[in-house]
Design brief:
162 residues
């Protein structure tokens, strides 16, 4: 007895082979809404974001203002899309700090990261870092006068290498 619903001629796998999908740039692109896909197209590449190393006086403000501006320029972008790209904005000491914070606290939203960056790198922290540098320099300067220039240069090398 023939089954009218059984069709061996149609091979769904063969049809899918012809429609090869390009690999998605983002893992969960299929789960995104149309508006979020459009917003993602408007978002600048992470490589063009300002870099933050944590060494300058107001370095962090450029990054914060830039990211806050992204939420204004692309209002339909999700917070996750922004925070997922944060790692590309950090360099040097700030990159190490960011990695440690992410391991400890996991995925967090932009307001949380913003407050953590401000807390870590605000002007008081920068002044403290500069004060420590000045203390090291003053100790080194005293050694120049006490021990002579050559010995102090050797000491400076050991201070820097530690």
């Amino acid at each position: 007895m023939d089954n009218p619903y059984h069709q061996e001629d149609i091979k769904p796998d063969a049809m899918l082979e012809n429609k090869k999908r390009s690999p998605s740039k983002y893992k969960d692109e299929d789960n995104m809404s149309y508006s979020e896909k459009e917003a993602l197209k408007q978002l600048p590449e992470a490589s063009s974001w300002p870099k933050f190393s944590g060494t300058g006086e107001y370095d962090y403000m450029e990054l914060i203002v830039y990211i806050d501006g992204l939420f204004i320029d692309v209002p339909s972008i999700s917070d996750y899309r922004i925070t997922a790209r944060l790692n590309t904005a950090f360099e040097g000491h700030a990159s190490i700090w960011y990695t440690e914070m992410k391991e400890i606290h996991g995925r967090r939203n932009w307001p949380w990261w913003k407050s953590q960056i401000i807390q870590k790198y605000r002007i008081g922290t920068w002044i403290w870092q500069k004060t420590m540098h000045l203390k090291i320099i003053s100790i080194w300067w005293k050694k120049i006068h006490m021990n002579g220039v050559l010995d102090s240069l050797k000491d400076l090398k050991t201070l820097i290498c530690k």
